[in-house]
Specification:
251 residues; mainly alpha; 10 helices
C-alpha cells in the first residue's frame, strides 16, 4: 500500500505540475466541444431529429477520456522503461499491480474531472444540453471505458521506445477511431460501411454508453450492453497488455 500511495502521489504531482499535459488533457478536447457546439448550435440531425449537442457532448467527452487514458499511461511507461525507473521498481518489493493501479486511479480521477467539466460547459444556454434523469449511469460506463483504454495505453507504452513513437502510434489509433466511432459526427449520417466498421471499435461503445446515460438516447438495456461490450474489450486488451508489458528495453 505504501508503494501504491507513493506512486499515486508522484503521478498526481507530475500531472498537475505539467502545464502542457493539463492543456491537452482538459482544454484541448474542450476546444472541439466548443467549436462543434457553436457550429451546429440549434441544429438537429436530419436522420434522427435530435439536437447535434446530444451527439457532440458525449462523443467529444468519450474521445477526450479515451485519449487521456491512452496517452498518459503510454508516455509514462515508455519514459519509466527508457530511464530504467521500472527496472529499479522491479528490484523493490513493489508489485506490477501497484504500478498499474496507481495509473488507473489517476486516470479515473482525470476522467471524472473531464466529465464534470464537459457536462458543465454543455449545460450552458449557448449549447443547451438537456441531461436525462439517468445521467448517474455515466459513472460505470466511464470506469469500464477507462479500463479498456488504459490497457491500450499499456500496450502502446510497452511497444514504443521514444516519445515520438508513442505519439505516432497513439494518434494513429485514436484519431481515426474518433471519426469512425461517431465522436465528432453522428454515426446516423455516415455511410453504412463506416457504421458497420464502428462495431469493432471500443470507442463506439463508450460513446453509446455515455450518450445513453447522459442524453437518454436508448434504454437502460442499451447502456448495459455498451458496458458489457466495453468490459469484453477491457478483458482482452488487459490480457494483451500483460503479455506485452516490459520492465526495461532489454527485456
Amino acid at each position: 500500500m505504501s508503494a501504491y500511495a507513493a506512486l499515486t502521489t508522484a503521478g498526481y504531482r507530475a500531472c498537475t505540475r505539467d502545464k502542457t499535459t493539463l492543456f491537452f488533457t482538459f482544454a484541448f478536447p474542450l476546444v472541439f466541444l466548443v467549436v462543434f457546439g457553436l457550429i451546429f448550435h440549434g441544429q438537429t440531425v436530419e436522420e434522427s431529429g435530435r439536437p447535434y449537442i446530444n451527439y457532440i457532448a458525449p462523443g467529444v467527452l468519450s474521445w477526450g477520456i479515451g485519449n487521456a487514458a491512452v496517452f498518459s499511461v503510454g508516455f509514462t511507461l515508455m519514459q519509466w522503461r527508457r530511464d530504467d525507473v521500472l527496472r529499479l521498481i522491479r528490484m523493490t518489493p513493489t508489485p506490477l499491480s501497484a504500478v498499474l493501479a496507481s495509473r488507473y486511479v489517476l486516470a479515473t480521477g482525470i476522467g471524472a474531472v473531464q466529465a464534470v467539466l464537459f457536462v458543465s460547459v454543455s449545460l450552458l444556454p449557448v449549447f443547451g444540453l438537456q441531461p436525462a434523469a439517468r445521467w448517474p449511469l455515466v459513472l460505470p460506463v466511464l470506469v469500464i471505458g477507462i479500463t479498456a483504454f488504459l490497457a491500450i495505453g499499456v500496450i502502446v507504452g510497452s511497444s514504443a521506445s521514444t516519445p515520438e513513437a508513442v505519439a505516432a502510434v497513439a494518434n494513429c489509433l485514436m484519431v481515426p477511431m474518433a471519426f469512425l466511432s461517431g465522436s465528432f459526427f453522428p454515426l446516423d449520417s455516415m455511410p453504412t460501411w463506416m457504421q458497420n466498421l464502428s462495431y469493432v471499435l471500443p470507442l463506439r461503445y463508450l460513446n453509446d454508453g455515455i450518450s445513453g446515460a447522459l442524453t437518454g438516447d436508448g434504454t437502460t438495456g442499451h447502456i448495459a450492453l455498451s458496458c458489457g461490450v466495453l468490459a469484453g474489450f477491457a478483458v482482452v486488451l488487459c490480457v494483451v497488455a500483460a503479455r506485452t508489458f516490459r520492465w526495461s528495453n532489454k527485456s
